[in-house]
Write a structure and sequence with these properties.
Main location: membrane
Protein name: Ribose transport system permease protein
CATH architecture: Orthogonal Bundle
Order of helices and strands: HHHHHHEHEEHHHEHHH
Number of helices: 13
Membrane topology: Multi-pass membrane protein
GO molecular function: transmembrane transporter activity
Helix content: over 70%
Keywords: Cell inner membrane, Cell membrane, Membrane, Transmembrane, Transmembrane helix, Transport
Structural class: mainly alpha
Radius of gyration: 20 Å
């Protein structure tokens, strides 16, 4: 009786360790970091630290849910950004340029789909190769990695809207992040495609023997991952009005970290959209709080790494306890 109670308590603590960690760091920085609780700073956390990373991390969640990973999400961001800027510079309407940007990002997913679902290369090696190929292609397209600027006087107002506009007082990047999060949750939890993706990550052989064309699902999933990541390329380019080669890779490690932190929110340790979102919020609050506390960049990285280790350790301990129960 006592053993069962302790096991149940351990599982409960493990599952909500992410919520507890987020609450703890929020309370800590509210006490130690000057201006942390100001409305302007909290909005900055949501727009600058949360919105873009949340979109990339949600894309990564699809890849990890299927038992793989996508190291080329930064490349999808960069290709979307390059296509968007190039089409705007060519005088195309902003809406058409945005569609072209999404197509540019999706092209990375198509390349991954051919490697993984077509040829059978492992997701890690395939997307790592795409990362390197994408970096080289960007160098070739920009004469060695030169940024592509948009002239301030010639930037259409509609172009700036994605990065600087508001709808009913809500910043557009934050609104787009919310739409992507809601859509991703619906797809993974409420659709047949999402259930197949999750089942593939648990036991791919069962999915294959059930008569489902696993290669089609895998291909569609990687195209979806890159298309979601491409949204960040559009927002980022609209915000800074410049394309900088390989800048999308800055999101990669935090997206992976947030996705795996989010697995602790699921009692079975599986990737899930709510957990990923909480993981992104945790990383964003920590980065902002450490910055306001006056710690330099290197100590910020140490603090973030220790926090990731702590949350994951509790999550793994929770799964061990559940397995023994």
């Amino acid at each position: 009786m006592a053993t069962a109670f302790l096991s149940s308590l351990t599982r409960g603590i493990g599952r909500y360790a992410l919520v507890a960690a987020l609450t703890a760091v929020f309370a800590l920085f509210a006490t130690l970091a000057p201006g942390f609780l100001s409305g302007a700073n909290l909005l900055s956390v949501l727009v600058n630290n949360f919105a873009l990373l949340a979109i990339v991390a949600v894309a990564m969640t699809f890849a990890v849910s299927a038992g793989g990973i996508d190291l080329s999400v930064g490349t999808a961001i960069d290709f979307a950004s390059f296509a968007f800027v190039s089409l705007v510079l060519a005088g195309q309407p902003v809406a058409l340029a945005a569609l072209g940007g999404l197509a540019g990002g999706a092209l990375v997913g198509v390349f991954n789909a051919v490697l993984i679902a077509g040829i059978g290369i492992s997701p890690f090696l395939a997307t790592l190769g795409t990362l390197f190929v994408g970096r080289s292609v960007q160098q070739l397209l920009t004469n060695g990695g030169n940024p592509v600027y948009l002239p301030p006087a010639g930037v259409p107002e509609a172009f700036r809207f994605l990065g600087h506009g508001t709808v009913a007082g809500i910043p557009v990047p934050l609104l787009l992040a919310a739409l992507v999060i809601a859509g991703a949750w619906l797809v993974l939890s409420q659709t047949r495609f999402g259930r197949v993706v999750l089942a593939t990550g648990i036991q791919a052989s069962v999915v294959r023997y059930s008569g489902i064309r696993l290669s089609r699902v895998t291909a569609a999933n990687y195209v979806l991952v890159s298309t979601i990541a491409a949204v960040v390329g559009l927002i980022l380019t609209s915000t800074v009005t410049v394309y900088i080669p390989s800048s999308g890779n800055a999101f990669l490690l935090n997206a992976i970290g947030a996705t795996f932190i989010g697995t602790t929110f699921d009692p079975r340790g599986r990737p899930n959209v709510p957990g990923t979102v909480l993981g992104v919020l945790l990383l964003g609050v920590v980065a902002n709080g450490l910055l306001l506390s006056g710690l330099n960049f290197y100590w910020q990285q140490v603090g973030t790494g220790l926090l990731i280790f702590s949350v994951l350790a509790i999550g793994f301990a929770n799964r061990k306890a559940a397995a023994r129960a």
